[in-house]
Amino acid sequence: SVARTFLLFLTIYIKLCLSDDVLGCGGYVRSDVEINFSQVGIKLFTKQGNLKYETECAPNNGYYFIPLYDKGSYIIKVAPPPGWSFSPEEVALTVDGETDACTLGKDINFHFKGFAVVGKVVSAGSDVGPAGVGVALFRGDNLIQSTETSEGGSYVFTPLSAGKYTVLASHDRWTLLKDKVVVEVADENGDAGSSLVVAGYGLTGRVTTDGQATPGVSFILHAHAETQTVPGCTAGAPSGYKNNGDLVVLCHINSDANGVFNFDTVPTGSYSLTPFFQSEETKYEVIPAVYEVIIANADVALEQPFS
């Protein structure tokens, strides 16, 4: 009959529509301590790493929902503020419309593990610093974590509970103008800022005569601008030296018995290095007569010797 045919058509149509229903994945960001759930994002990626969808968690309970329009393989990742730690950080899933967690309506949850202490070790007079500075995190007298700064001087300690922490910085060669900072973690990351400061970096080289080490040669450091004192370096120029340029004479040192000279702590910046060697009767020519050098968050060792 017409009614039966219509009913069959309607049933088939409903099934086709249901097969194209929007799927979805949902769940919660969970935490044992108070956090701002609205700062936590959830992102959906394809298996190839392409971002398909992103959303924020509900501020009251951390709930999220991601609509899915196609079956396939996906990765759901939690996207918190820098330094916040979660377990897991991501969940891989294959949506088949039958057996996967999303289709079955199961929650996919991410559990908050802790905040972070973030900061930077910088060079004096700069807003960036070196990699490789040791930084240790203490709570009272107890060492919690240790690490080294990354490129630019940044460091992160995570996961951490609320409390007061001390960060200590150290390096086997470089002098730190400030090596300690206290930071408090409450309901967000503890930001130590750029409180830890490296005074300067080493500048070393050699001088030879016919391939043999030459001691007693003065090396005069000139600055393109006024700068702070260079520790371990005799202020001003050696006797008999005339500064014919516009640069400021900072200080000088002499090569040792091995022909080696070493400025231990030179602040970041641009400098000119001039050799000077004379006896009571004779002034000797040393080449190169001027060497331009840039100190930028690392030691500098001149490969080509003066001669």
From TrEMBL:
An example Gene Ontology CC term for this record: endoplasmic reticulum membrane
Entry superkingdom: Eukaryota
InterPro entries recorded: Ig-like_fold, NOMO-like_N, NOMO1-3_2nd, NOMO_3rd, SDr/BOS_complex
Keywords: Signal
Gene3D superfamilies: Immunoglobulins
UniProt key word Membrane: no
Residue intervals of the NOMO third transthyretin-like domain: 247-306
Keyword Signal: yes
Signal peptide range: 1-19
SUPFAM superfamilies tied to this protein: Cna protein B-type domain
UniProt-listed Pfam families: NOMO1-like_1st, NOMO1-like_2nd, NOMO_3rd
NOMO second beta-sandwich domain mapped to chain residues: 112-199
Residue ranges annotated for the NOMO-like N-terminal beta-sandwich domain, each copy included: 27-110
Protein name: Uncharacterized protein
Source organism per UniProt: Meganyctiphanes norvegica
